[in-house]
Amino acid sequence: DIVMTQTPLSSPVTLGQPASISCRSSQSLVYSDGNTYLSWLQRRPGQPPRLLIYKISNRFSGVPDRFSGSGAGTDFTLKISRVEAEDVGVYYCMQAAQFPWTFGQGTKVEIK
Amino acid sequence: EVQLVESGGGLVQPGGSLRLSCAASGFTFSNYGMNWVRQAPGKGLEWVSYISSTSSTLEYADSVKGRFTISRDNARNSLYLQMNSLRAGDTAVYHCVTGGATRPGYWGQGTLVTISS
Questions:
Q1: Are B110 and A48 a contacting pair at CB < 8 A?
Q2: pLDDT tens column, B12-44
Q3: Distances (CA, A) of A53 to A37, A69, A93, B14
Q4: CB of A95 within 8 A of CB of A82?
Q5: Which pLDDT band holds residue B101 (cuts at 50, 70, 90)?
Q6: Which residue of A has its CA nearest to B62?
Q7: Which among B61, B102, B108 has the least Cβ separation from residue A51?
Q8: Cα–Cα distance, B104 to B102 (Å, whole number)
Q9: Is there a contact between B104 and A99 if contact means CB atoms under 8 Å apart?
Q10: Which of A47, A92, B93, B110 could join A41 in a cystine, given CB atoms 3.0 to 4.6 angstroms apart?
Q11: CB-CB: which of A37, A100, A102 is closest to B103?
């Protein structure tokens, strides 16, 4: 199985300041169709997970442009350009290049 | 608006069975592969099972293989998970999740399954 490793596991941030989360996969996430199936999910308290970013850098429907994804190979990053109060929650990277889909441990974003 | 509404969760004794359902609306269900993903209390996310749009391909996590069966009814826009021989370790909130080009896509709110005597 592909192991997804996130850092940091906790990220206290000041409102209006940027935040960044890293994710490393234990092997390539390139699927046979040439796409890299690395996604980022947000889980707000009391809510189900919500897709933010798919295929490394594509924002899902309705996702604000302060969220951006980047990376290649086995190293990926989620950035929030200016953290807002509604961004508090746990963020997960995940891979869907092969079954079983696997997830990072989660990074808790909280306001300082 | 895409909606995924899970049902069928509850409290079951070890060794028992449950059937989860997911009612889909707001998109062409028959065009999408579908998944079940679970999250145990205080734990991370765990993918459970996948079914292709035509039911021709089924995939399972090793932890549930031989005990869980995924199925779908495209005419009813519904996804199912038959869970047998349930164990304490299966206690979790179970979400149905769309597949497709973005995979994953949309997530349902989830249904809680509790295995306890």
A1: yes
A2: 999 999 999 999 999 999 999 999 999 999 999
A3: 10, 7, 9, 38
A4: no
A5: confident
A6: A100
A7: B102
A8: 6
A9: no
A10: A92
A11: A37
